[in-house]
Amino acid sequence: MAESAACPAFQLGRPRYEQGSFLGRLRHFIDVIDPSTLFVSEKRLKECVKLLDDYKHGELPPGVSDLQLWEAQKIKQAIIHPDTGEKIFMPFRMSGYVPFGTPIVIGLLLPNQTVVSTIIWQWLNQSHNACVNFANRNATKPTPTSEFLQGYVGAVTSAVSIAVGLNVLIQKANRLSPATRMIIQRLVPFPAVASANICNVGLMRHSELSEGIDVLDDNGNVVGSSKIAARHAITETAFTRVVLPMPIFVLPPIIMSYLERLRFLQSNRRLLLPVHSLVCLVTFGLSLPVAISLFPQMSQIEVSSLEPEIAMATDCKVLTYNKGL
């Protein structure tokens, strides 16, 4: 089928949208996080996998359109890990990040947090993040359970320590007015979550730094295992995890501080939580695709910047690696 602006010609394993621009990556990742893929049946998934296999072996049934092939690939990539070939548990898929993560975000941003509630919500948030990071990691090398647990404990400890420490400091700041103290207290989750997210990514994917990740040539063949590519992959992922919580944990407190002054909400206090939840959901839903679109999932790196043994093993100038999400 001829390539058109609406639906380009299908290419197996390639993104539907051009990945050299931010807009192209944004459109790609909006597909990746589409929550509708959470409701795909096992039968439908098998049909999609079979259709792609038929295409790969040149046995495609007549009448199958490019649009059908792109949709099949979207469903497969949303559910099945590209390295392991196994299904990702629903709450830990990128398509489940917003639906399953929003209740935790709402809890983190609730006003008048106690030390106990702060610890509980930070623990839940980092537990979810740890599982998402692990489920969507570069899995070309096996990761021992002990390293997963070390990363998990490190991430939770850092998040709880920072959040509780900041809350205690704010409560002791007697010079601040109650209104100012409440706004600042609502902003506490951001530095705590951002710092912990960096720890979470680094600790959960630490084995990649010591063992390296596979780098691929233009034909998708593995050239070697690179620690330098692993460092790039983890740095890029950690950066997105700092950008992601910025609007999620900064905008809702500011928006709610204004909405709470409205006469309608002051006379209908029961609506505060639903409005707060809606603000969090919208902010989270808009922030996620923007943050993960900063870098392509299949990133490229110049051979000259990799290990000498990899440079000697290929004639390619640029190699590709799975950054993870």
From TrEMBL:
Query: Sorted alphabetically, which InterPro entries does this protein's record hold?
Result: Mtc
Protein name as annotated: Sidoreflexin
Compartments where found = Mitochondrion membrane
Query: Which keywords, in A-to-Z order, does the entry hold?
Result: Amino-acid transport, Membrane, Mitochondrion, Transmembrane, Transmembrane helix, Transport
From the broadest rank down, the organism's phylogenetic lineage runs:
Eukaryota, Metazoa, Chordata, Craniata, Vertebrata
Broad class of where this protein is predominantly found:
mitochondrion
Membrane-spanning parts: 238-259, 271-295
Q: Which GO terms describe its biological process?
A: amino acid transport; mitochondrial transmembrane transport
- One GO cellular component term, please give it: mitochondrial inner membrane
How this chain sits in the membrane, per its record, is:
Multi-pass membrane protein
Q: Which Pfam families match?
A: SFXNs
For this chain, the family text in UniProt reads: Belongs to the sideroflexin family.
- GO molecular-function annotation terms? citrate transmembrane transporter activity; monoatomic ion transmembrane transporter activity
Q: Is Lipid metabolism found in the keyword set?
A: no
Tree of life domain: Eukaryota
Q: NCBIfam families in the record, alphabetically?
A: mtc
Q: Which organism is it from?
A: Gasterosteus aculeatus aculeatus (three-spined stickleback)
